[in-house]
Design brief:
This protein is α/β, with parallel strands linked by helices. About 40% of the residues lie in helices and about 20% in strands.
């Protein structure tokens, strides 16, 4: 018997619906899922078309569920959780582990990818059959992937020291600028920012808001090197880890202090090679 298309709703549509509802923003959901805002809108439209109901109330500002949307919400959570649980079980099965030859590493936006390459090249000299895969994203999204078995190792930044993590590193967050001639005078501060979901961005903006200092984001970059180059070119100031401080930039002391961030090296399985990699990555960070 031929199935109707409406009987097959992809898990990715439910995942998008949950992200938009949880984050209360299409833009934040796009950054979290690694999709474009138009793709988010397309997923929601397709989900509504397939279900035949409206899930968000567009007649009011913000992200508000309709009565039908509230009904869909609980089932959507069950579907996504069941899907991810099944994948995690299969990927952790003995057969799958024996076949796996790749080490999948999450790289948060706050970390330069190239810092890891020499380490991985050195490890491959003694393990030539290994393959490495680097996946970039926000720390929160990468930790979710680690939990669901999609990553093996994940350095991640959090605003608080991660509980139960042996490998952790506390990093000072400082303000940097192209030049610093005179202190803040009350005008909106020009800001260079990393994407939604990055801890450095959240700490930076919340410190300004707590001090009632107006700001304007003049440049947004997904990669830390792009953000530093934007500061170097005079787009504005940025707060980030002091370890990334470039010699040709200056530290600003007139803006409110930013709380420290914490790096934790998370490992999905306690395998000898994974533990070695985690130790080496912490050395690079610290």
């Amino acid at each position: 018997m031929r199935k109707r298309e409406s009987e097959n709703v992809g898990v990715e549509l439910f995942r998008t619906f949950l992200a938009v509802n949880e984050l209360r923003s299409h833009k934040k959901a796009a950054a979290y899922l690694g999709l474009s805002p138009p793709a988010i809108s397309g997923h929601l439209k397709r989900l509504q078309d397939l279900l035949g109901v409206k899930i968000f109330d567009n007649s009011v500002p913000g992200v508000i569920l309709t009565a039908d949307g509230a009904l869909v919400l609980e089932s959507a959570r069950e579907i996504v959780n069941s899907h991810d649980h099944l994948l995690g079980q299969v990927r952790r099965s003995p057969t799958k582990l024996q076949q796996a030859r790749a080490i999948k590493i999450g790289v948060p936006h706050e970390l330069r990818c190239w810092l890891l390459v020499p380490l991985l090249a050195e490890i491959q000299l003694s393990h030539p059959d290994l393959e490495f895969s680097l996946r970039r994203g926000s720390s929160g999204a990468l930790l979710d992937e680690l939990e669901h078995g999609e990553l093996d190792i994940c350095p991640a930044v959090t605003p608080h020291r991660p509980p139960g993590i042996v490998r952790s590193y506390e990093e000072e967050i400082v303000w940097i600028s192209k030049q610093f001639d005179k202190p803040y005078e009350g005008k909106p501060v020009m800001i260079v920012a990393q994407p939604y979901g990055t801890v450095a961005r959240d700490l930076m903006l919340s410190s300004l808001e707590a001090a009632n200092i107006p700001y304007r984001i003049t440049f947004e970059a997904a990669h830390i090197d792009g953000a530093i180059e934007a500061v170097r070119r005079g787009f504005g100031s940025m707060a980030f880890g002091k370890s990334n401080m470039a010699n040709d930039l200056v530290q600003r002391t007139d803006l409110p202090p930013v709380p420290k961030a914490f790096w934790g090296i998370h490992v999905r399985q306690s395998l000898p090679l994974h533990e070695q990699l985690a130790d080496e990555i912490l050395t690079i960070l610290a």
